[in-house]
Amino acid sequence: MRVTLVSSEGPEWSSFEIDEKLSVKKINIPRSLKPWQDLVALVRLTSFFLSRRFDIVHSTTPKAGLLTALAAFIARVPVRLHTYTGQPWVTLHGPLRWSARLADRVIGLLSTKCYADSDSQAKFLAKEGILAARKIAVIGRGSIAGVDLIRFDPDKFSTAEKQQLRKALSIAENSKIIIYVGRITKEKGISELLAAFNALLDQNYDVDLILAGPQDQDCSGTKSSIMGSPGQCPRIHWIGYTDRPEKYLSLSDIFCLPSYREGFGTSVIEAAAMGLPTVGTRINGIVDSVIHGETGLLVPARDGQMLLGALKQLLDQPAEIKRMGKEARRRCFQYYDAEQINRMVAEEYVDVLKKGKGLRNNYSVNEKGPRKQKENSV
């Protein structure tokens, strides 16, 4: 089996190991609505799929999912898969919400099978009428690809290394550290997190906050600038994009994800692998990645006071931080080992290929004859 990865260009490209089983193709797909660039991407995807004769095309993310579903249908790809990883329209209103919902429905109609990266999200999609419950599945206990447990291992970082990093960030030795990893944008609950953190400082908690991720200036069609001036508060450490979040997680005590919407929350299980409990919001996705009272605490979305209370609850009980962190790591090993999940995905590909025999004829009414399929695309 050969795999081709298609994606916009980004900082992660340099980490791919290309060999005879993996090739890559760069096709720019904007995150937000850009009609001309979207049309160009659709034409390029369709042309690429036609030229390579894929057996399977599997997409993720809303915009790439829509363009891929259209291109793969036009190109008569026999098995067209999509994984829903969160619905942007949940936090939208008016025409933007309507059009984003419609896009998700089109993806469901054009795909031969769909997946969600959490049970709660799968149920939500079916309840909202985006696609029938029989057409959507969850692989394992959720997540897209699990966690690389070799990479996310707290024992990889020595005490000396952690002390050196604390010094580089100007964080005192005894300070507790709350960390957030992800895009810096309003829908991730950053406003509530900053307000809760400042309240902790006002109440004389010895605590620092690490924000690891790029500021998203182009989210859901709106511009946002919620961070203010970097360095405004000496105990808030915004480090921007990093390709080594595990380094900063190794320093930290509590992971916080106060998001308004998620598909699953991969950063939650990455933090769990590093032995951190999570304070998150009780929304689709996160209710699957965090077990309230066992691996972390869940609070209502957009509720800064409840978020503050949950953070205080853990900071006031260091033993609970350790207990929940230990349980989070155990659960991560049990359900979210990347090798285990990748194996299940590969088995799913084999299964859908077996069940999908003859699909090319069903969707290729003008085709003169069968064509030999050679590759799969992700």
CATH class of the largest domain: Alpha Beta
**Multimeric status of the protein:** single chain
Measured distance between first and last alpha carbons: 12 Å
Separate helix tally = 13
Query: Which CATH-level-2 architecture of the largest domain?
Result: 3-Layer(aba) Sandwich
Q: What is CATH's topology name of the largest domain?
A: Rossmann fold
Strand/helix succession:
EEHEHEHEHEHEHEEHEHEHEHHHHE
Outline:
The chain contains 13 helices and 13 strands. With 378 residues, the protein is α/β, with parallel strands linked by helices.
Chain-wise SSE layout:
Blueprint (H helix, E strand, L loop, with lengths): L2 E5 L14 E5 L8 H18 L1 E7 L1 H13 L4 E6 L9 H17 L2 E4 L2 H9 L8 E2 L21 H11 L6 E6 L8 H13 L4 E6 L23 E5 L4 H5 L4 E4 L8 H8 L4 E4 L4 H4 L6 E4 L4 H12 L2 H18 L2 H18 L3 H5 L11 E3 L1
Parallel strand pairs: 1-2, 1-13, 3-4, 3-13, 4-5, 5-6, 7-8, 7-10, 8-9, 10-11, 11-12
Helix pairs in contact: 1-2, 2-3, 6-10, 8-11
Key structural traits:
378 residues; Rossmann fold; seven-stranded parallel beta sheet; alpha/beta; globular; 2 domains; single chain
Overview of this structure, please?
It is a single chain. About 6% of the residues have low confidence. This protein is α/β, with parallel strands linked by helices. It has two domains: 181 residues, Glycogen Phosphorylase B (Rossmann fold); 182 residues, Glycogen Phosphorylase B (Rossmann fold). The protein contains 13 helices and 13 strands.
